[in-house]
Amino acid sequence: MLNRKLFTFNSRTNHSLNVVHKLKTELRLIKKILIGSLLLGIISTIGYLIFMPNFDLFDEPTETELKAECDYEGLRKIKMTEMTGNATSNRSIHIYATDCNYDEKIEPELIFVVSAGFIKPKNVSFEWKSFDTLTIKYNKKLDIFKQKTESESVNPKIIFEYITE
């Protein structure tokens, strides 16, 4: 009878020890998960604070004038601008033709537009070849979106000559 009580006592003790061991193991697992989640949250917050201010996802592109030059007579003006890109569009370079005494109310005529992810202002240039001819030089790796051969709204007309480099 004494053996039986002792056996019952030992099995209850072993059972209690097993339960305590399982609880400790589960607590360690919960602790690891909690610490991992906190670290992930802290790293995500730091990443968000560092990268999001520098990430132009929804910003409107801005236009910067790179070069503006009137012809020899001072009648017509060619303007080259750079448009910044954002998350959905690459940077691009635009060339416009206007009258030399350009009025802001009149929309300039868009002549030439190129774009690429690697575009730099030195990839496009222009110079007056003669009174009515403008030479535009550009990198052959650029994507061309618009390329006119002559002006439509500027008088006297300008003929555009293109050279790839």
Task: Outline the structure in words.
- It is built from one helix and eight strands; from the N terminus they run αββββββββ.
- The longest helix has 50 residues.
- The strands form two sheets. The protein has a five-stranded antiparallel sheet with strand order 1-2-3-4-7, with no helix packed on it.
- The model has no long low-confidence stretch (mean pLDDT 84).
- Strand 2 and strand 3 form a beta hairpin.
- It has two domains: 53 residues; 102 residues.
- It is of the alpha+beta class.
- The chain is rod-shaped and about 105 Å long.
- It starts with a helix and ends with a strand.
How much is the average pLDDT?
84
The N- and C-terminal alpha carbons lie at a distance of 104 Å
Compute the CA-based radius of gyration: 36 Å
Structural class: alpha+beta
Q: Beta-strand percentage?
A: 25-35%
Number of domains: 2
Topology, pairings included?
Blueprint: H1 2-51, E1 63-70, E2 76-83, E3 92-99, E4 109-115, E5 124-128, E6 133-138, E7 143-147, E8 159-164
Parallel strand pairs: 6-8
Antiparallel strand pairs: 1-2, 2-3, 3-4, 4-7, 5-6
Quick overview of this protein structure:
With 165 residues, the chain is α+β, with helices and mostly antiparallel strands.
Question: Main attributes?
Answer:
rod-shaped, alpha+beta, three-stranded mixed sheet, 165 residues, 1 helix, five-stranded antiparallel sheet
